[in-house]
Design goal:
Blueprint (H helix, E strand, L loop, with lengths): L1 H17 L13 E13 L3 E3 L5 H18 L4 E2 L8 E5 L30 E6 L2 E6 L2 H14 L9 E11 L5 E7 L7 H13 L4 E5 L1 E2 L2 E2 L7 H7 L6 E2 L6 E2 L10 H12 L4 E8 L4 H6 L28 H17 L4 E5 L6 H5 L1 H10 L21 H18 L4 E5 L12 E4 L4 H8 L4 E3 L2 H4 L23 H5 L11 H4 L2 E8 L7 H8 L2 H10 L7 H18 L9
Parallel strand pairs: 2-3, 2-4, 4-6, 8-9, 8-19, 9-14, 14-15, 15-16, 16-17, 17-18, 18-19
Antiparallel strand pairs: 1-7, 5-6, 5-7, 10-11, 12-13
Helix pairs in contact: 2-3, 4-6, 8-11, 10-11
Bound molecules: acetamide and zinc ion (ZN).
């Protein structure tokens, strides 16, 4: 009897071991997966990972793979540079150049948004009796492939010795070149350690653009060496509103924090190792009350101004007629360019009420000097909608955008702005980030401007993800952005844009605003698993997308979330 029981236990454990199979039904789903589940390659301890000897980037990618295989499965692999007989082989190959086809982009991080998608992010992964062969045109592709293999691995409870990899051929490439996530570090400050975790999570989902929102009415977070007081004083608000704004109840606790340039460089380096570009944002000329606190002369009224303890849209903005405003902005953007190598710099441009500008002598005199006139149907009133319409004040904002665009162009950069920058007329090369729905993006694409779609009702992950508000932490609660809603977004808006116009759509971004999100765990809860849904919008072709299939693939990703220790919402609606 005892012997029988032992045999049964042995059989169960043997069955358990054989059940440790990889599964390529991952998120985001690769472009093409041809799997043969009847045959396996057995990956076991002591096997090797080969890469191009002497190539530091490939070495780092191989080390990531080694670390992740160990972390998820317990299997220890060895790094074997240049050893073509190793069981896992990472190799760079030259792109085939069929006649008439574009060359692959030269951007090492796949961040050349002007290139088509036959770029350096593509990869092929084959599992055969000879092991795992991963090829790509560039390290970026190898990295994306290694993330794919990571997500395919079983998450083992025991420290196993082997994993079964079904034979497969995966050919993969992302749909969009720009696959972004915004983190607002103005309303709440997040540590560099958390930013790194955030970047890890982004990379896991194939995202390649970290939009770092660095400045807000409620706090300035970027060190500017020429203006040391800006971060020292502008980063601290004396108190923060709690509960509904109309109640005016405050915590009376000073809140602050900023990033030194050294820390920002560390973030850039860390992101680049994960093939993520950091797009820094200095939001101007609105959302600048933290600046006005330090430099009240830059406001239309002269202040004094507190670093805002309230959320919302502030009427106190940079004075558009004061020449010192442009001097200030050029100093800030100059240092920003020194720290961030991104080809795109976000200049904000949203929610800049024109109430002050309408009454300010300096602003009005600048409007006169520039010969700016209001056109019919203007809406020059203050308030949230004031940026719509071709008022002289909105054109003054365009003048500022133009000056900064020229300045940044001299540093080899393009500007991105929120869709309000359309109102006074778009500057020559501006990329529009469409947040108030897709309307701004559609209009910009029709004007042949490049566009990033980030419409609030689909892409704002500060909003609740479940219908029942009581089952989730409190957030910005005017509407729900469920996982299925986010998943359903089609960025090319085919009912509005012609095929040619749709080529202007560079990609899609999810935005995590943090008025009501003060802690890393809450930020991750808002992010996951919705970033999984967003990643399929960003990566997959429309024919591949299927929400039921997404939900069926989610448990495997959640096991990985659990293993790497990130918080997520456990329900999907
Ligand atoms: C925004 O949400 N104000 C861009
Ligand atoms: Zn003014």
């Amino acid at each position: 009897m005892k012997k029988k029981l032992l045999t049964l236990l042995w059989l169960l454990s043997a069955f358990g071991a054989s059940a440790q199979r990889a599964n390529y039904n991952i998120i985001p789903l690769p472009r093409e997966v041809k799997v043969d589940t009847t045959q396996f390659f057995t990956l076991s301890g002591g096997m090797g990972i080969a890469y191009d000897a002497g190539n530091d980037e490939c070495c780092r990618i191989a080390s990531f793979l080694q670390q992740w295989v160990k972390e998820l499965t317990g299997v220890s692999l060895e790094l074997k540079p240049g050893d073509r007989s190793a069981e896992v082989r990472l190799a760079l190959v030259s792109p085939a150049k069929p006649k008439g086809k574009k060359k692959a982009s030269k951007s090492p991080s796949g961040n050349d948004l002007s290139s088509s998608n036959d770029n350096l992010e593509n990869y092929t992964m084959k599992v055969t009796a000879e092991g795992v062969e991963i090829t790509a045109y560039a390290p970026t592709g190898l990295f994306r492939a290694v993330e794919t293999l990571r997500k395919s691995l079983p998450v083992k409870k025991d420290s196993g010795r082997e994993v079964l990899l079904p034979f497969v051929t995966i050919n993969d490439q992302p749909r969009f070149a720009y696959r972004g996530v915004l983190l607002d570090c103005g309303r709440h400050f997040f540590s560099i350690d958390f930013i790194k975790q955030f970047l890890d999570v982004m990379a896991l989902h194939g995202c390649n653009q970290f939009h770092w929102h660095l400045t807000e009415d409620q706090g300035w977070r970027f060190e500017v060496k020429a203006l040391p007081e800006l971060a020292e004083k502008g980063s601290i608000r004396e108190k923060t509103v709690i509960g509904p704004a109309r109640m005016r109840i405050y915590d009376n606790v000073p809140y602050g924090g900023y990033y030194t340039q050294e820390e920002c460089r560390e973030v850039v380096r860390y992101a680049a190792e994960r093939y993520i570009n950091v797009v820094p944002e200095i939001d101007m000329p609105g959302h600048m009350q933290s600046v006005l606190h330090v430099y009240p002369n830059l406001g239309c009224t002269g202040g004094p101004y507190p670093v805002s303890p309230n959320w919302g849209v502030m009427r106190e903005v940079l004075c558009g007629g004061n020449p010192e405003t442009l001097t200030f902005l050029k100093t800030v953007f100059g240092e920003l360019c020194d720290v961030f190598p991104s080809p795109y710099i976000h200049i904000g441009g949203d929610e800049c009420p024109k109430e002050r500008w309408q009454k300010c002598a300096k602003c009005q005199s600048k409007i006169k000097e520039l010969g700016l006139t209001s056109e019919p149907n203007d809406n020059g009133e203050g308030g949230r909608g004031s940026q719509d319409g071709r008022s002289a004040e909105n054109k003054l904002q365009t003048y500022i955008n133009h000056e900064i665009e020229q300045f940044l162009a001299s540093r080899g950069r393009s500007i991105i702005g929120w869709d309000e920058i359309l109102s006074g007329g778009l500057t020559e090369n501006a990329i529009v980030m469409s947040w108030r729905g897709t309307k701004g993006g559609i209009e910009a694409a029709r004007q042949k401007h490049r566009v990033i779609m980030s419409p609030n009702v689909y892409a704002y992950i500060d909003h609740p993800q479940l219908k029942d508000y009581s089952r989730q932490p409190r957030t910005t609660d005017s509407y729900i952005v469920s996982c299925s809603k986010m998943y359903s977004f089609e960025p090319l808006v085919p009912e509005e844009l012609t095929e040619e116009e749709s080529h202007s759509i560079l990609g899609v971004q999810a935005n995590l605003w943090t008025e009501h999100i003060a802690y890393p765990e809450h930020a991750l809860y808002q992010l996951l698993p919705r970033l999984g849904a967003m990643s399929e919008v960003q990566w997959c072709s429309p024919e591949q997308k299927d929400f039921e299939s997404f939900k069926a693939r989610l448990p495997q990703l959640k096991k990985l979330y659990d293993r790497i220790g990130v918080v997520y919402c456990n329900e999907v609606e």
